[in-house]
């Protein structure tokens, strides 16, 4: 069930991209070049796919070997 929810998040990315693009259209503070860069970078779903491909263990640290002093 967890994997299904994670994949659902990955496929919701196109909706997020459209929302980013709509926001870029109405933002007066960005130059045209900055808007184009953000529009292209919004297409790349880096975090969701890396999270799914690592099995959800992206931010979990490895256990420390025994015998090392704790801080």
Computed Rg: 19 Å
The low-pLDDT segments are: none
Compressed to H and E, one letter per element, the order equals HHHH
Q: How large is the count of helical segments? A: 4
Mean pLDDT: 78
Span between termini = 37 Å
Q: Count of DSSP E strands?
A: 0
Description:
By secondary structure, this protein is mainly α. The chain has four helices and no strands. The relative contact order is 0.14.
Structure, briefly:
The mean pLDDT is about 80. Helix content is about 60%, strand content about 0%.
Key features?
single chain; 71 residues; mainly alpha; 4 helices; 0% strand
Secondary-structure blueprint:
Layout: H1 2-11, H2 13-25, H3 32-41, H4 46-53
Helix pairs in contact: 1-4
């Amino acid at each position: 069930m967890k994997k299904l929810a994670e994949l659902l998040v990955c496929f919701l990315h196109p909706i997020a991209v459209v929302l980013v693009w709509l926001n870029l259209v109405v933002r007066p503070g960005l130059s045209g070049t900055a808007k184009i860069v953000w529009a292209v970078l919004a297409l790349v779903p880096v975090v969701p796919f890396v999270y799914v491909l690592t099995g959800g263990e992206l931010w979990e640290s490895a256990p420390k070997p025994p015998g090392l002093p704790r801080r």
